[in-house]
Amino acid sequence: DGLETFRRILQINPAQKAIIVSGFSETDRVKKVHAIGAGAYVKKPYILEKIGLAIRDELLKDAMHSRDM
Questions:
Q1: Exposure string for 52-66, b = 16+ CB within 10 A, e = fewer
Q2: Helix 28-35 with 2-12: angle, nearest 10 deg
Q3: How far apart are CA 18 and CA 6, in angstroms?
Q4: Of 42, 50, 56, 68, which has fewest CB within 10 angstroms of its CB?
Q5: What pLDDT band is residue 66 in, cutting at 50, 70 and 90?
Q6: What is the DSSP secondary structure assignment for residue 27, as one 8-state letter?
Q7: How far is it, in rounded angstroms, from Cα 63 to Cα 42?
Q8: If we measure between CA atoms, which residue out of 6, 39, 42 comes closest to residue 24?
Q9: Distance of alpha carbon 5 from alpha carbon 63, whole angstroms
Q10: Using CA atoms, how far apart are residues 59 and 51, in angstroms rounded to an integer?
């Protein structure tokens, strides 16, 4: 499952970024993934533009955070 996978990835690389893609409405599991650092939530079905925008937004957040340091 995505939540457990992301937790394991964070053990290896704590700076790993992620977006959430799901066919379900925002649930407690989505909130848990957000709480451990995942970014945007994109609901299925989606168009590639939405995925691209979500990725861009997460990368921009990271770049802005790095610039502010």
A1: eebeeebeeeeeeee
A2: 10
A3: 8
A4: 68
A5: low
A6: -
A7: 21
A8: 42
A9: 25
A10: 12
Provide the residue ranges of all domains of the chain, joining segments of one domain with +: 2-68
pLDDT in tens, 3-59: 999 999 999 999 999 999 988 777 888 889 999 999 999 999 999 999 999 999 989
Q: What are phi and psi of 56, to 5 degrees?
A: -60, -45
Distance between CA atoms of residues 1 and 29, nearest Å? 10
Neighbours of 42 (CB within 10 A): 17
Query: What is this structure's pTM?
Result: 0.75
Closest CA to 20 of 10, 64, 37: 37
